[in-house]
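Schema walk-through. Below, the input block comes first and the output block second. Nothing else is stored per chain. Lengths vary across the set, and this one has 206 residues.
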Amino acid sequence: MSFFLEFARNPMTVGAIAPSGPALARIATAAVPRTGSPIVVELGPGTGAFTQTIQERLAGRGRHIAVEVNPQFAQQLAAVCPGADVVNADAADLGTVLARLGFSQIDVVVSGLPWAAFTESRQRDVLSAVVAALPPHGVFTTFAYTHTRWAPPARRLLRSLQSRFDEVVISRTVWANMPPALVYYCRRPNIWASTDAEPTVEVSLR
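--- output ---
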């Protein structure tokens, strides 16, 4: 089943007409350690644009949990990427997924979720689940398409990230992706954050 067909059927959960490219995958997964045994969660893997790159970085170490809400994508991904634990579930239910697998906290969350298609409450629920699952050393990465960066949902996402993490670093534009995109690297989660208040500082690598 094609990515475009799933987009046409479920635009609010797929959010794009084509998978992300390898250049974006390399940058979005750069926070996955190449040493140790990290527990890595991938949210919204879709057809696996980031999944194989995460597997390559882990090289058989640690644990890779891929949480996909679309049952067709989840089934396909489980078949082509047996090294990942593919779970057909909502990203907002991350805490329940981890508890079922026996984990209370994780090291890295890599997101391919379509934030621009989410309502404010949906963004809040997913980000709250991510922050609750990350320890102080945890890292969260996600991306946004450059052409939508100044749209209200994307601006709201950035405010939400900056209110929930002590550091949000923005990558340079990945022009090789279609459409061009940028990645947010979020570190030191603030578990006490309860609002999406406007932050005073933004760190950027542009």
